[in-house]
Structures are given as C-alpha cells and as structure tokens.
Amino acid sequence: MLKRSIAVFLVILVFFSLLYMSLPNGSEQTSDGLYAVNGTMDLSAWNIEQKKIIHLDGEWQFYWNRLISPEEFQLEDPMPSGFMQVPGLWNGKEIDGKILPPFGCATYRLILNHTPASKVLGLKKGNARFSSKVFVNGHELISDGIPASQAQDYKSGNTPKLGFFQNDSESIEIIVQVANFEYMNSGIPVSLELGREDAMLYQHQKNNMLALAVFAILWTIAFLYLIFFVVALIKGVKEYILPLFSLFCFLFAIGNGMADQRPLLFFVPDISFTVAFKMKDFFLSANFITLLWVFHRFKNGLLPLYPVRIISIMYGFYLLAVVVLPIHVYYEIHQVVMICNTVILLALLVQAIHLYIKEAKGLLLFVSVLTVNMYSIDSILFSLGLKASSRFSQVFMMLFAVVMILLLSMHYLTAITQLQTSVLRTQEAEIAFLRAQINPHFLYNALNSIAALCATAPERAEDVVVELSQYLRRSFDFKRIDAMTTLGKEVELLEAYLYIEKTRFGDRLEVEYDIDETLNIPIPPLILQPLVENAVRHGLMNNVAGGTVTISIRRQQGEAVFTIEDNGVGIEAARISELLEEKPKSGGIGMWNINQRLKMLYNRGLTVYSVIGGGTRITFCLPLDKEKKTGRIRRLRGGSQK
Questions:
Q1: Can you give the pLDDT at residue 615?
Q2: DSSP per-residue letters across 28-78
Q3: Cβ contact 178:146 at 8 Å
Q4: Where would I find the H helices in 298-392?
Q5: Closest C-alpha among 311, 313, 319 to residue 283
Q6: 382, 112, 356: which is closest to 259 by C-alpha?
Q7: Residues β-bridged to residue 194
Q8: What 8-state DSSP symbol labels residue 385?
Q9: How many Å separate Cα 561 from the centre of its chain?
Q10: Secondary structure of 85-115 in the HEC alphabet?
Q11: Strand 131-136 to strand 98-99: parallel, antiparallel, or no bridges (unpaired)?
Q12: Phi/psi at 36 (nearest 5 deg)?
C-alpha cells in the first residue's frame, strides 16, 4: 500500500509540474529585452535569423470604448486611456478611476521600432475576446468576427489566425480593435506573435496538425471501443462500460476540437463562431456526464446510481441552457458549473486514488481522471486570464489518449485471457470426457477376460484380479482431469493389460518390446493400452493362429516416436478413415478417442498404415522438450525384448 501511495504522489507531482511549466514566467519576457513599454517596443536586439518568432508582450496603448481606425490615427494622435498589459484582460482593470466591465470595446496600439526591413513577416493573433480586427501599417491584416461599439452591430469570432505582410520600413504600427458583448472576460489573453514567414507558417500548421491528430486519435479510440462492445454483444457479453468509454472519447474529441486552435472549424467553415463556441461547451459538459456513468459502471458501481442520476439531470438542464440561451446569458451560471465540475472531478480523482491504493485496481482509470482534471484546470486558468496560452492542454489530451489506448489494450488482453481460459476449460472438459470413455471401456474388456479365465483357468483368475486392482489403483486418478502421467507408469499399465490378455490367449499372443529405457517423458494417460488392445483383439485374435504385437518407443530428431505394430489381418482403407473420424459409425471408440486427445494436446494425431493380410502399424510422436532427466523405465517382464 505504501508503494502505491508513493506512486500516486509521484504521478500527481509530475502532472502538476507539467502544469506549472506552462504558466507564464515574467522573467522570460524581458530576458532578451523585447518588451513593450508605454506602447513602444524596440526590436534592435532582435536577430531574426536566430530567434525566428517573438512575442509582442508588454504595455500597449489602450483606448477604452473606442474603435479607432488607422486613418484616424494618421489624422490625429488621440490620447490613450492608459496602457494595457498584453497578454491580459481588461475587465477588472482601472482606467481613469473606473473599473472596466467585461462588455464593451477597445483599441490596442503598439509601435515597433528598428524592425527587420525588406522581409516578409507573419503576425499571428491567437485569442482576442470576443471579436477583433488587426491592422498593420494602415492595412487590415486579420479579421475575426465584427468588432463594434454596440451589441446589435457586433458579431463574435475568436479563432487563431495568421496574416503575412511585406515590411519595407524600420517601424511597424500594429492596431487591434477588440469588442466583446458575450463572454465573461475581455481583452487579449494570448500573446500576439511576430516572425519570419516560413517559421510562422510552420508553427501554425504544426499547431493545427497537433490539434487534428488529437481529434483523430480520440475518434479512432472511440470507434475501437464501440467495435469491441458490438463484437462482445454479438457473443452474448454485455460490457456496457465499453460504449461509455467510446462516448467519452467521442464527446471529448469534438469538445476539444472546438477549443484552442478549433481545428474542426476547417471542416465546417460556414457555421458561426457562436454555434462553434456553444458546441464546445455542450460536448465538454455532456462528456462530464459520461464520465460519471463510467465511474458508476466501473467495478460494480464505484459511484452510487442515485447521485449519478441527480447530477446528470442537473447537467442536462445546463446543456439545454447552452442550446437555447445566448452565450452571455448561460455564462451567468457557467462559473458555478465550472466550480461544480472541478469539485466533482476532484471527488472522482479521490475515488480513483482510493481504489488504487486500497485494492490495487484502476491505475489507468486514476491516470485518465487525473489528465481530465489537469485539462480542466488548464482550461479554467486560461479562461480566467491566468495563462497566456491553452496549448498545453493538448499535452494533457495526448496523455489522455495514451491512457485510453492502454485501457483499450487491457480490455483486449482481458478478453483474450478469458477466451483462453474458456478454451482451456472446454479442452479440459473434453479430455475428461474422453478419459471417462476410456476407463470403463478398458475395465469392461478386462472383466470379460477375467470371466473367461474363471471358466478356463480358475487357478490363475486370482493373479489377474490382483493385476487389475493394481491397474485400477494407478489409473483412476481424478485429482486433475487434465493430468499427465509418465511413460514409465503408462508402460506399467500396459503390462497389466497384456498380462491379462496373455493369460487368456496363451501361445496365440506374442509381445515384443523395443523401448528406449532412458526415456521418461510426460504422456497422456491411457494412450497406449487402447491401441495395443485394438492390435490384439481386432488384428491378431481374428486370425486363428494369433500373432505378434510389437511396441516400439524410440528417440528420433527431438521426438519420441511411438509405434504399435501387429502381423494380423489388417484393416481396410475405408475402415481406417471410419475409425479416426469424429463419430465412428460402428465398433469401439478407442482409436478415435486417442486421435482426438493427441490433436487437442499436440495438434497432431495418429498415422495408420495397414495391409489386408499383412498387419497394421500405428504411429504417433510426442515432443521431448519436457523430458525428465532422472528416472528410467524398469525392464519389462513377460514376452521378449529386442
């Protein structure tokens, strides 16, 4: 338990370290001297060949409640309301003795001096809440929604965008118009980036590809979970946690695809940003409900049904509000929902930790819930303006995807293990059935022989009964239905049978042995006697003069080769096929039984060669890889030995 507690602590420490690394560091902003002061940034220290992309962070000129065009700045030089930190939010800041509200509009302005001339530069706007226009040197470069001073003229749009321009002067004027009448926070919470054309394009494409890759991976995992569920359902297994995992990944993929880089907007460019934003809130909240049901279905109800239903109904009303209400209306309760999300996610995390520490179960579930918590915390910090970028949330998404793949693999391995166990039990049951057929089969024939001896040689019947009792004591071992015996013990059983038959048939039966006495391999029980019985009863005794049966067990190329051969009447080819087929039409079941057992245990059966009037030879091979290095077969009594 202590080791598991330490493991949990280390995992949480690693995740929070990753989150801490993504937080802004003020010392890094001024490490190269590229920092805006009073609306001006000096780029004389910028080596564009070494540092290809820079952040335009610092103090921008700020004009509250005014959307000033470049032409207006050329006609006059309006006095700024103050200076605003970028990245940062304007709501809650004090300008002219007033606390700024989230709703309104503003203009940001920055002058860059000593810029690289005769260069094609790229400018990226990441996030400007909740609509914006970017002008560079008097020309509109980026437009995202329609910023306006009145709500009725305003249209939201907040997607990362990239623009390029030719710079032929040593100074650049950047003007950003921003308006918001919907979201709870306003301003420019993400750094604007300036850099070389190739570097900016590469970074933009890389970010988009990463976001699309996360989406594709989560959807693939969702479909795999769904396929596993359907296949299991077809086989009669109802694993309802599988479709829940599938729905969880599906909803998470769509919700995340509408956040940050918003890669799904590439596929549906005509939908409004308001719809896209609502889709993000809807799918991420629906995904939260799914997570509750995952916990309920995991390990016989890790969460009780009643609270899961209550929370699901409450969140259902919130989902309805997201669909029918404007963003600024349902965002009145959004912060409360976010707090509830955080509390419940932390409660689920505690549950997962408790399960793993106390019962050593659900490690991957714990890690997956931890990644969701980190994703949620990262998103909250970004929405509150405490982080300048939400890109790091994609790291948690990738970790979540890895955990989902591992969970899927564990489900697959569990299914394979259960299938193997089922196959093994079926095989054991079939072997037990076959053994159950062999034992009474031999006993019946042995009793017939004793009955015959009682009539013809009563003085020897007692010896035969003693041999039979020894055979039964060694043979009827039901401790393990799939137990193996040794070659030595199997030969002893064969001796007991042949002693009985030799007593009955006298000089008509001759037995010859050709056995490697150093062999002592494990062997399926009752596998030699029925073959020898077939040779004696059907091969030799159908001949008036009788004959000889030869038992050979020799090493050959890493195998033990078993051969039972007689010089009796032989078997017709059609009859051989009948004896080896699944359901013999007539006669005994001995040869078919042994052939089936060998195929199940070694994937190979009997080889039968016979000539009418010339006898029969039956051969099979067993591997020597489990041969015991100690012990020898004792010399056989009775008959001759080559």
A1: 92
A2: HHTTTS--BBTTEEE-TT--TTTS-EEE--EEEEEEET----HHHHHH--P
A3: no
A4: 305-324, 327-330, 334-359, 363-383
A5: 319
A6: 382
A7: 54, 123
A8: T
A9: 45
A10: EECEECCCCEECCEECCCCEEEEEEEEEECC
A11: unpaired
A12: -75, 135
What tokens does 295 get? Answer: 């916990």
- Which pLDDT score is estimated for 589? 59
For residues 142 and 132, the answer to whether their CB atoms sit within 8 Å is: yes
Of 611, 498, 514, 493, whose CA–CA distance to 564 is shortest? Answer: 514
Distance, in Å, from the CA atom of 201 to the CA atom of 452, rounded to the nearest integer, reads: 99
How far is residue 164's CA from residue 162's CA, in Å, rounded to a whole number?
7
Residue written as token pair 């109802």:
238
**Chain Cα centroid distance, residue 64:** 52
Instruction: Answer yes or no: are the C-beta atoms of 113 and 41 closer than 8 Å.
Output: yes
CA dihedral (332, 252, 376, 263) in degrees, to 10, reads: -80
Compute the Cα dihedral for 235, 238, 242, 244 and give only its sign.
Answer: positive
The enclosing H or E element of 10 equals helix 2-21
pLDDT confidence of residue 177:
97
DSSP 490: H
- Distance in angstroms (rounded) separating the CA atoms of residues 548 and 543: 11
Listed in sequence order, the residues at least 6 apart from 63 whose beta carbon sits closer than 8 Å to its beta carbon are: 78, 80, 81, 106, 107, 108, 109
Q: Which residues pair with 37 in a beta bridge?
A: 40
Instruction: Quickly tell me which residue has 């902003």 as its tokens.
Output: 29
pLDDT in the model for residue 428: 63
- At 197, list the tokens: 């054309």
Query: What pLDDT does 642 receive?
Result: 40
**From CA 87, how far away is CA 192, in angstroms rounded?**
8
d(C-alpha 600, C-alpha 435), whole Å: 13
The CA-atom distances, in angstroms, between 597 and each of 136, 554, 610 are 84, 21, 22
| Residue ranges in 128-196 assigned as alpha helix (H) | none
Which residues, at least 6 apart from 323, have a Cβ–Cβ distance to it below 8 Å? 278, 282
Q: Which letter, b or e, does each residue of 214-235 get, where b requires 16 or more Cβ atoms within 10 Å of its Cβ?
A: bbebbbbbbebbbebbeebeee
List b or e across 375-396, with b for residues whose CB sees 16 or more CB atoms inside 10 angstroms.
bbbbbbbbbebebbbbbbbbbb
| Sequence letter at residue 45 | A
Q: Tell me the average confidence (pLDDT) per consecutive run of 10 residues in the chain, 642 residues long.
A: 86 83 55 82 90 93 95 89 92 90 95 88 91 95 94 90 91 95 90 93 87 87 88 78 87 84 79 88 88 76 81 92 90 83 85 84 82 81 66 72 78 72 66 58 71 76 76 57 74 82 82 88 84 88 88 91 93 83 57 82 89 92 70 44 40
Task: Show contacts of 340-346: CB within 8 Å, 24+ apart.
Answer: 341/288, 341/376, 342/376, 342/377, 342/380, 344/288, 344/292, 344/311, 345/288, 345/291, 345/369, 345/372, 345/373, 345/376, 346/373
Please, is 75 exposed, middle or buried when counting C-beta atoms within 10 Å of its C-beta (0-12, 13-18, 19+)? exposed
- CA distances, 364 to each of 211, 370, 374, 375 (Å): 23, 10, 15, 16
60's CB contacts (< 8 A; 6+ apart) are 36, 39, 83, 84, 85, 86, 108, 109, 110, 176
Cα-only R_g, the chain: 42
Q: Which residues contact 54 (CB under 8 A, 6 or more apart)?
A: 32, 34, 43, 46, 193, 194, 195
Q: Give this prediction's pTM.
A: 0.62
